[in-house]
Design goal:
The chain is of the alpha+beta class. The chain has eleven helices and five strands. The protein has a five-stranded antiparallel sheet. β1 and β2 form a beta hairpin. α2 crosses α3 and α8 packs antiparallel against α9.
Length: 260
């Protein structure tokens, strides 16, 4: 079936409203008249290719959605999307694998825009022992793997706190990207049995970040996580790639991961 494409004006208005900007605020930021912006949104005027990209840049529209804006305005897409294994992304792939390998013995993973696992270093596999095999069939969704009752959830000591943290990150990502796949993923994750009533997750006011506390055997491992992205991507695949690195939050965890 042919997918319906919204008019460029409607899409621009939708992104402006998503960013909670008035026409005046966006017009000022983009250095265009409010009248011209109004004409673009209502369809009384059509934007040039450069204007589409200019407004998309000011609205911080993801590269994938910028292509959709261009198509809606009658122009060819600008940003390419390739597999991470594409020869033209060889240097980026090597960089990703170097970062993951260098992070060992601490666990680290690479994920795409839908939280599907792209790669992991050797420290991740020992932590997945006992996980339902169905959750490990590609494509592996990291959020599903974490919060599903057959996944890591039963062994996450601070599950209420960690679940709230992950769902908040996902909601923020939906706000930025308007990705319908992520909307459905959020609905699925919310359907899993919750360890406590909504809003009761306890956050330690003295903590510097939300830790990931995970039971492995007779020990509880505690990690702090960081997210790394490519700084100046003009390729859709690279713009949507993220590296999640976990650092020991205490000396006992640091010693245990060395043994693993």
């Amino acid at each position: 079936m042919t997918q319906m494409v919204q008019p460029i004006g409607a899409l621009l208005r939708e992104w402006r409203q998503r960013r909670r900007l008035s026409q005046l605020a966006l017009a000022t930021e983009a250095e265009v008249s409010t009248r011209h912006l109004s004409f673009l949104e209502t369809g009384r005027a059509l934007p040039s290719r450069d204007m589409v990209l200019h407004l998309a840049d000011r609205l911080d529209v993801p590269l994938r959605a910028r292509n959709q804006l261009l198509v809606a305005a009658g122009y060819a897409p600008v940003f390419r999307e390739r597999s991470i294994d594409d020869p033209e992304l060889k240097a980026a792939r090597a960089t990703m694998e170097q970062v993951l390998a260098a992070h060992a013995p601490n666990p680290a993973i690479a994920i795409d825009r839908h939280w599907s696992l792209i790669a992991a270093n050797r420290s991740v596999a020992p932590l997945l022992a006992g996980v339902d095999a169905a959750l490990l069939k590609p494509p592996i969704n990291v959020l599903r793997l974490s919060l599903h009752p057959g996944g890591l959830a039963p062994r996450i000591v601070n599950l209420a706190e960690w679940r709230a943290h992950l769902l908040q990150r996902l909601r923020q990502q939906i706000d930025v990207s308007a990705d319908t796949v992520l909307v459905e993923l959020l609905k699925e994750l919310r359907s899993y049995s919750s360890p406590s009533s909504p809003g009761t997750a306890h956050v330690n006011g003295a903590a510097i970040a939300v830790p990931f506390r995970f039971r492995h055997g007779d020990r509880v491992l505690s990690f702090l996580s960081t997210t790394t992205v490519f700084g100046t991507p003009v390729d859709i695949t690279l713009s949507e790639l993220a590296l999640e690195s976990f650092f020991p939050a205490d000396a006992e965890t640091a010693e245990t991961v060395k043994q693993l």
